[in-house]
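At this stage, I put together one protein's amino acid sequence and its backbone structure tokens, which the following lines show:
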Amino acid sequence: MLNPFLCDRLKASLPALTALVLTMSLLPLSITVAHAAGAADTPIKVGIDLSTTGPAAAIGITSKNAMLMWPATLAGRPAQYIILDDASDPGAAVRNVRKFVSEDKVDVVVGPNTTPSAMAALDAAAESGTPMITLVGTSQVVEPQQGKRIWAFKMAQNDAAMADAVTRYMANHNVKTVGFIGFADGYGESWLQQFSKFAELRHISIVATERFNRTDTSVTGQTLKLIEAHPDAILIAGAGTPAVLPQRALVERGYRGPIYQTHGIATPEFIRLGGKDVEGTVFPTQPVVVAHDLPADHPVKQAALDFVTRYEARYGAGSVTQFAGDAGGVYPLLNTAAIRALKTAQPGTPEFRAALRASLEQTQNLAVPNGIVNMSPQDHVGLDQRASVMGIIKDGKFHYLSQ
């Protein structure tokens, strides 16, 4: 028989003991519930590398502006956007991407936005198994679809499609001979390769070929050689404000023939810096640049106009660029791909990165500001000729130009 004193003590302690046992029995359940809730709230991390300073700043800044308009969620999950500047330096771009994949553990990389940087960053993305959505025009980043390139995707139209458009326009306007001057890097090389192919197809001869660097301050020698070749027209394969230099040199030295540029010039800064020297420039571009002038039946007009309206409401009239449009298109592409990827894996894991890569390849009939995207395992761009139009600089603005 128990001591009456001990019985009284046990009765007094019973509520506390019961509470302790109940708490301990619920503890594992509480941890499990918290873990499940945390999984649902795990952010999708996006590492963004852009050239917002240096020679390509005019391109990178407008891309960044568009990204600052992205929603705070992706596929219903919190989104964490980490933006770094590579100062237009491929070495810095590689360091940024390696930081994204090794330290920040991002699920996807967006950028770089210059060809040399994108090509240099391929290894870091592929080694870590992280999909990389670049913002460059050069098809070399994604072609051929094998090896490290299977991790790379691209928002901008290919150089080949743009070369097709510009040579078709040249042929329709009796251009038989062309002088070529382009960047002495992957962008210029890709353009020369693609332009040569379509020029031959349309019986256009390249009578002079010159190169220049993005950081050059003079191209006198190159422009004199071009003029001496007496071409019907000259094509400048550059991007951003550095593309003004050879055009100004040609005009100052008396060249009066038509001057063509590539889709890399479509920024307000190019027009502001070039002034009267770039008036009349003809160039291939993407729909968002000339959205207001597009024919009413153009299949991308509505998506392009919607983006232009939102972008210019925030940054001012005439501020939109092709590069802003490319960046604006990344979000719907990534959002729809993430929705599919979440069905099989969770953010922050190798499985999710692989699922996201596979899901990007499944994108079909997605309207973005610069085209209609239909990707596949063989095509990591997914844009057709609906993403290629001709433009002209007239009265200090970009305008649509029919063939």
